[in-house]
Amino acid sequence: MSKPAETAPESALGTPSEAHRGPLARLPRGFADRGPADIAATERMLAAIREVYDLYGFEAVETPFVEYTDALGKFLPDQDRPNEGVFSFQDDDDQWLSLRYDLTAPLARHVAENFDKLPKPYRSYRCGWVFRNEKPGPGRFRQFMQFDADTVGASSVAADAEICMMAADTLERVGIARGDYAVKVNNRKVLDGVMEAVGLDGEDDAGRRLIVLRAIDKLDKVGAEGVAALLGAGRMDPSGDFTKGAGLAAAQIERVLAFTAAGGSDVAATLANLRTVVAGSPRGEEGVSELAEIAALVAAAAYDDGRVVIDPSVVRGLEYYTGPVYEAELTFEVKDEDGRPVRFGSVAGGGRYDGLVSRFRGEPVPATGFSIGVSRLLAALKVLGKVGAEKTVGPVVVLVMDRERAADYQRLVKTLRDAGIRAEMYLGDGKMKPQMKYADRRGGVCVIIQGSDEQARGEVQIKDLVIGATLASAPDREAYLKAQAEAQFAVPEAEMVAAVRKVLARHG
Amino acid sequence: MSKPAETAPESALGTPSEAHRGPLARLPRGFADRGPADIAATERMLAAIREVYDLYGFEAVETPFVEYTDALGKFLPDQDRPNEGVFSFQDDDDQWLSLRYDLTAPLARHVAENFDKLPKPYRSYRCGWVFRNEKPGPGRFRQFMQFDADTVGASSVAADAEICMMAADTLERVGIARGDYAVKVNNRKVLDGVMEAVGLDGEDDAGRRLIVLRAIDKLDKVGAEGVAALLGAGRMDPSGDFTKGAGLAAAQIERVLAFTAAGGSDVAATLANLRTVVAGSPRGEEGVSELAEIAALVAAAAYDDGRVVIDPSVVRGLEYYTGPVYEAELTFEVKDEDGRPVRFGSVAGGGRYDGLVSRFRGEPVPATGFSIGVSRLLAALKVLGKVGAEKTVGPVVVLVMDRERAADYQRLVKTLRDAGIRAEMYLGDGKMKPQMKYADRRGGVCVIIQGSDEQARGEVQIKDLVIGATLASAPDREAYLKAQAEAQFAVPEAEMVAAVRKVLARHG
Question: Which of residues 93-132 of A touch B (CB under 8 A)?
């Protein structure tokens, strides 16, 4: 894989004047600012998600951005060195602190710390930013938002089934049509069973198990042949990069591939295939039984129409999963960088992590949860045209014709605001032209003008910027005059609010 | 001042079992979790603030939590050592990164970086968490929320006046009554003029100026006599702690005190007093003129009824202010720790910071802004009884009478949710008692019961937990029987939704 693009060298950034010696104004690598449209679209989407979670009986709880490093644990995928991937710093008492890298580890700490106070099972949700100390790349940020829901204290897979169905409801609630997504369910125990069946269940095999896991996870990208190579000696990709394989023998590779290909024509067939693959492994069989139980619950609630499906190809990278794992995938196609159609892919995922709370308490505390990649889901809604089309109406701008009369203009603005109309007085320098340009740039629908003549008559001029912009293209003189009369007209001050309302109504 | 309480030693924290060797579940010092009531109350308050800012023509923009350390600058009050007060860590390219300590410095970076793309003047707002690497204490957190509004690119003090009036509108919009607050305005230039008048305007006097500033800021706490001591040789507080003074001579002290006492019976008197205090300092006189201009704008919009007032006692600790400074104070009284009545005090503040964007660009970029301490304002609303009284209704809990029938109970839950009723199936272990206890703990109004008898009849039992709890106190047998009939009754499954709605309506 080629390295992600580095940012330009400092000298190429910013536009300070020649003589300037101050710091450069630049975002840190991998971080981003957010503008009003993005913030508003995100807020609307989060509100919709919250509604569904509330309906399911989950309640909001939030943890801080900073945790003791040891409380977070080392559960990031693809991170072999300690604390790799995490932003950490030392407190003044020498204890290590870290920015949270997900919302699950902090929830585990919260539940363990407040165990006796919480109702159990404990259903909760939270939305927040998380941080990864990784090389940034295109679309790959070091700060991003997740929206999680978790049920702690329920060992029954009914809890997993519920979260999968809630995931489906959530996707539909935010605007993904039924048929454009699937919540795919698998079980780590089944995977463990496969590992057992191929003799990779020893303590010393942890490294090779991880390689196998990652190989399976690449099925979509490299196909069965590629996975076979990764399970065996290794694989050379088209760019010439070689990835070392797990070194499995042919019979072992076959068994793992049989697992990835276990998806049948219906649930019963898939479950039967899986039972064959894990035959002889009690843990694997337990996993298949759990999947069967989930399938039954999903069918009872009629979510077995493609909304929630059993799919052996789901792996999930995080090491802390212990049972059912699930992934919400958008199945509609988009064009990739080279213009080829590809599925939009995963926007959320989760699974059962029975060890995460337990490690604080030294007693079993089952838990399962689900995390939405907020930016990723929002990107999908943009592709579908569900967000981004909204127009925010700019403020009505009261122009400053005479700087001495700022107090008068302030009063006009106040009158508009008191009537609930978004309005402001122009606060910059310059005469008419920059003021009109400003109003335009803010997306304002009209401006208020009161020069000395208008003031003498107790009037204001209202200039409709939208109609004004179309004047030049009037088909004939009559149309022009009509538009001109609508584009700018005078009213007594007392009628300003009503007139502005009329102009605002014109343009929806 | 006594040291803030340290947290308990590790051994006293958490309740892991004896044999447990895992990490301890504990929040880092100075950080807090937030529960559902707090989150909901905060969200409501933030939405109200957002409404006012929108009305004033401001638009949302957000920056990330992490900035290059040099971009943030060192503007924290009471921090003499470099990077003191800030959480910092090094990136893999050796550049220093910091968690933002306020929302102003990042905004300055954002505006400087996107200068040509933004409309100017640029009105924007943002709400977010900020971080201070300070010793935590009671009510003093290392992560807290601010809600800022700023106008960049407007040199006119009309921008400052607007923000002060917006602050007043905001306080009223969230529930603070007129008369219970004041937005107090002062001007750094007037302070500079005082410094000039007492001969403390040299480059070498920066340290002493800071001591003078802090002395003035303590007027409320230590009185004029205390301030005089802090301006002179120093002051011994009742606990015996000695604070070294600024070492001013008697005449200088008198002049500074005259400044703090410049507040007159009306605006005109205050301004006249201030003119006397800064006489001979052009910068001081400019400051007084700016205050006069703000007062005129405030009067024109009729906010001079105590909502926005000129008050020479306002100082503001941050070093980056260059002109008008303002502080929103709640003037109603609350009891302090010792039961004595004190004013609630400051909940927001801000001022003009003309140098903060400029330092990136090497050209003047005027700016002014205002920051609400979100937790502090929320605490005030709690004191006033404006938040905290809301009751969130817990979910309807469908009890699990027979584990084999989970799919049936799941279906009942689905029916309730489809009708928009917050509902869930009990997911824990245990029979009737723990299930009822759980429903109670969640604040549920009723539970649904379907044992084999009910199932055979196609019915469900609905148990009203609120009436159920009052049964024991029924005055007579007749009342008891009536209440009992309402507290638990059977309906056909098809009528479950209607019956649950009736029970929910009973209890508002």
Answer: 93, 95, 97, 99, 108-110, 112-116, 119-121, 123, 129, 131
Q: What is the pLDDT of residue B393?
A: 82
Nearest to A408 by CA among A462, A459, A444, A446: A459
Furthest-apart CA atoms within chain A: distance in Å: 96
* Residue B406: both structure tokens together: 């989970």
% of residues, chain A, pLDDT over 90:
64
pLDDT bin (cut points 50, 70, 90) of residue A3 is: very low
The tokens describing B159, both together, are 């921008």
Q: Does B395 touch chain A (CB under 8 A)?
A: yes
pLDDT tens, residue by residue, A121-138: 999 999 999 999 988 888
Query: Which run of H or of E encompasses B49?
Result: helix B36-55
Alpha helices in A104-182 (DSSP H): 104-113, 158-174
Q: Which residue has the tokens 């020479």?
A: B312
Chain B residues with beta carbon closer than 8 angstroms to that of A88: 89
What the block records as the tokens of A155 is 């060992």
Helix locations, A245-351, DSSP H: 250-260, 267-277, 282-300
Give yes or no for residue A146 having a pLDDT over 80. yes
Q: Is A57 helix (H, G, I), strand (E, B) or coil?
A: coil
All structural domains of chain A: 28-200+248-383 (3.30.930.10), 396-506 (3.40.50.800)
**Residues of B in Cβ contact (< 8 Å) with A428:** 120-121, 153-154
Residue A50 contacts residue A125 (beta carbons within 8 Å)? yes
Nearest chain A CA: its distance from B426 CA (Å): 8
CA B101 → CA B21, B72, B86, distances in Å?
A: 36, 8, 6
CA distance B402 to B423: 19
Q: Tell me whether A39 touches chain B (CB under 8 Å).
A: yes
Residue A23 pLDDT grade (very low, low, confident, very high; cuts 50, 70, 90): confident
**pLDDT for residue B4:** 37
* Residue type for position B466: V
- Average pLDDT taken over every residue of chain A: 89
pLDDT for residue B80: 46
Partner residue facing A153 (CB), from B68, B362, B428: B428
A292 vs A313: CA distance, rounded Å: 16
Under DSSP, is residue B372 helix (H, G, I), strand (E, B) or coil?
Answer: strand
